[in-house]
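Can't paste images in this forum, so I'm doing it all in text. The chain is below; anyone willing to post the predicted structure tokens underneath?
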Amino acid sequence: MVDERLKKRLEKLSELNEKGWDGYEAPPIPDLSIANTVTLLNNISFSDDVELYPTGEASIQLEYYPSKTCPSDVGAEFEIFENNVLYSSIRNGEWAIEDNPVTISDSIAILTNLHQENKTTG
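Text version of the structure:
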């Protein structure tokens, strides 16, 4: 379930529906990108460590950094588009960037696994 903080953030992101919302030439954030983000958030049971940002690529970036003491130690970033998701993750300070897009379902599994790993090691 999407918490109030992220619901408000999604409302703000949905207002970025005109070209040039960033003062440059950024395309609008598509409704389907927002819907995909909502689907992802509705399927995780944690959101305190999740942040949402618009990108200039017609997508939403979801960042998950559970380690408050050292945010560069573990985490993941998901760039949510209309039809797929790109993601990268960091473990022990080392970034791994995936070359192939993943689905929303894959993203949910990746995020949930990362959260579970952090709970057992963090």
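Residues 4-121 form one domain. The two ends are 24 Å apart (CA to CA).
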